[in-house]
What we know:
It is built from 10 helices and no strands. It has a domain at 79-253. It has helices spanning 10-28, 39-56, 59-63, 65-73, 81-97, 112-122, 127-176, 183-238, 242-250, 255-262. The chain is elongated and about 90 Å long.
Amino acid sequence: MKAGKGMDISVVVGIGGGLAGIMVGFILEGGNPASLLGLSAFIIIVAGTAGATIASFSIKEFLGIGRILGDSLAPANAPNADLAGQIVDLSDKARKEGLLSLDDMVEDIDDPLFRKGIRMVVDGVDPDEIEKLLETDIAIYEYEKKEEVELFAAMGGFMPTMGIIGTVTGLVLVLGSLGGADMAKLGHSISAAFIATLYGISFANIFALPVSLKLKGKLKKEKLRMEMILTGVFAIHKGESPMLVKEKMLSYLDHEEQKLLDKGGGEE
């Protein structure tokens, strides 16, 4: 589906704010930020989580993390007044001039699902077949997006466990050197061991799980948009009055978008 305009910075602001809050709190307690740096702990969390995720999904899906993160930064392609207005306009034209009159407008439709639906309407495809084809497209899209949601949710589950593993391995080394270690060095080693747990819990709850929930919320809005398109295509095919079509479109819009549609739609 076509992505929305602009950028949703809430992911960046949320993750940055969460990390900043942890760091500020640690400093206020008298901590030294440098003491939170732990390369070995970071490697255990990243490598362990990557391995567990690849084993649970696939290498191809794991390598798509960068693209998925980019999607999480894009605004949700939610139902809007522009699309609703376009549906109403097409229904008006089809009712006055017939379905074939829409032929020269098909390529001006930006949304691929809507364009496909109107193309089939113009070509005289049976309504049942249109419904099956469009619902199949929606189901496939939803399946792919749910896989992305589940990937980040799984990472959020693996990270704290990898943190515990890192802490346990660190404590094993500490306990193995108890005989010859002084108390200052022992305390530093124990502190370093628990950095892995801190990393695991922090990465899971500030990064992986929030991104998963963000993607899940976007999918809900995008699916609602696709359902609106489905309703619009069928209304146009049946030759329903533009007034009735508009009322149907309003039910999919939030309050602000409803006001825009009543004013004639937003600007593309």
